[in-house]
Design goal:
This protein has helices at 13-24, 36-43, 54-60, 97-106, 126-129, 149-154, 172-179, 190-221, 225-233, 254-269, 274-287, 289-299, 325-332, 383-389, 404-409, and strands at residues 6-9, 29-32, 65-68, 79-82, 115-118, 137-140, 159-163, 185-189, 306-310, 337-341, 353-355, 368-371, 394-396, 413-415. The protein is of the alpha/beta class. The strands form two sheets. It has an eight-stranded mixed sheet, sandwiched between helices. A six-stranded parallel sheet has the order 11-10-9-12-13-14.
Length: 428
């Protein structure tokens, strides 16, 4: 069988990385967006997103990649994925109208036997309601993780495929395409696949929430969460890949969207929502962690404090700031003199905020430095240089990026989630 041609309708984070991942497997991929300027930028290897390895992959596999603003070019495709990043509001509610609009735009141009797969994340029930021939319509669970999107697109753990009839064979072209990745293929009914993605994220949130709860408790009782983690990873019921690194709550939009979806469905169905509500409360609490440390150590102590902030993206290896803890902290510190730095995110004009050219510059005259995005390049900052340029001694490092011993040797006082001060027998 001739190798299928794979189309992607939508060149946002999901669609672009998926198209490039497809090309790395030897398939021809056609990416469509109605935004001609976006198409031109991507074709010129100036993608609007930051992902490790993306620019290099675009260059390496350009012979198999076509980017277009003309939907009729998708007529050459055997499989077309709707691959839009679905926007969410402040409450995590998805705007699904963008998927309907994209389908209306491309459907007239698809060939009669083309397979259509919705890759964008949707709530249970959406795919079955979609007006397209059921025998050619599928929902495939996306595996996008910002900062690891290309890695996930080229080496998925498994494919979860929602079908009108899970017992029926997948179309030959679709089966051949999925089979090229060498991972398990799990067909199931539409609603099961749609809920599977949400289930995966809920279990992730459960790990995050439990980790954050116990890591924060570690600080209070003189324990060190990093010493506990290896014991948990060696427990077969938890496992070596468990997410056990504490952080500042959930951000980025995707996890929040899934929690909102579960809450809405559970409320309509009359099932329990207490555990999901608890996850959201825990996330809100952890988003305040850095501010609480600053308040106790600096804001309540220094008359006119100056604070340096390292990192604006919601996580490393991305330029996304959706629900970024750093931006929330900046808003919380309104009126405080701030100096900020991020290697990829630009910050517009904000009162009392200075943008530093180099990460060390945030230390100038600072009473405290707060590391809000764990970019790897921050790990190599010289503690002595920071200490010499600072006015105060406080370093708030939620993620434990800095070497605490080196920082302490330079006379700096480091605060990290999960690391409590050693207690003597009297303190106990």
């Amino acid at each position: 069988m001739k190798a299928p041609i794979v189309g992607y309708a939508g060149l946002t984070h999901l669609g672009l990385c998926s198209a490039v991942g497809t090309a790395t497997k030897g398939f021809r991929a056609i990416g469509f967006s109605p935004d001609a300027s976006l198409v031109a930028s991507i074709a010129a290897v100036r993608p609007p997103i930051v992902e490790p390895g993306l620019d290099e992959a675009l260059l390496t596999h350009k012979a198999r990649l076509t980017f277009t603003a003309e939907p009729e070019r998708l007529a050459a495709c055997d499989i077309v994925f709707i691959a839009i990043d679905v926007p969410t509001d402040a409450n995590g509610t998805s705007n699904l109208a963008v998927i309907d609009a994209m389908l209306q735009s491309i459907a007239p141009h698809l060939k009669a036997d083309a397979t259509l797969a919705i890759l964008s994340q949707v709530p249970p029930g959406f795919t079955r309601r979609t007006r397209f021939a059921a025998e050619r319509l599928y929902y495939q669970v996306e595996t996008l993780i910002f900062g690891r999107a290309l890695e996930r697109a080229t080496a998925p753990e498994r494919f979860i495929v929602g079908c009108a009839d899970p017992a029926a064979s997948l179309p030959a072209a679709y089966s051949a395409y999925l089979g090229a990745f060498g991972c398990p293929i799990l067909p199931m009914r539409y609603e099961s696949a749609e809920l599977a993605k949400i289930a995966i994220n809920c279990f992730l949130v459960a790990s995050v929430s439990t980790t954050n709860t116990l890591a924060e408790l570690s600080e209070c009782i003189g324990a060190d969460w990093s010493e506990i983690v290896p014991a948990l990873k060696l427990d077969a019921r938890i496992g070596p890949s468990a997410y056990l690194k504490p952080g500042l709550g959930i951000a980025g939009g995707n996890l929040e969207r899934d929690l909102a979806t579960v809450l809405n469905m559970a409320n309509r169905a009359g099932t329990s929502t207490e555990v999901i509500a608890a996850y959201l409360r825990n996330s809100s609490h952890m988003k305040e962690w850095a501010y609480a440390k600053l308040k106790r150590t600096v804001l309540d102590v220094v008359g006119r404090p100056r604070v340096g902030i390292l990192g604006l993206a919601y996580k490393q290896d991305t330029n996304s700031t959706k629900n970024s803890p750093a931006l929330a902290l900046i808003e919380r510190l309104r009126g405080v003199d701030l100096t900020v730095h991020d290697p990829v995110v630009s910050l517009g004009a904000v009162a009392n905020v200075t943008v530093a050219e180099a990460p060390e510059d945030v230390a100038d005259g600072a009473d405290a430095i707060v590391l809000m995005t764990p970019w790897p390049q921050y790990r190599n900052l010289d503690p002595t240089v920071l200490a010499d340029r600072m006015r105060g001694r406080i370093v708030v490092d939620p993620y434990g990026v800095f070497n605490a011993d080196s920082m302490g040797g330079a006379g700096l006082e480091v605060h990290s989630i999960g690391k409590g001060a050693l207690l003597d027998s009297v303190g106990r």
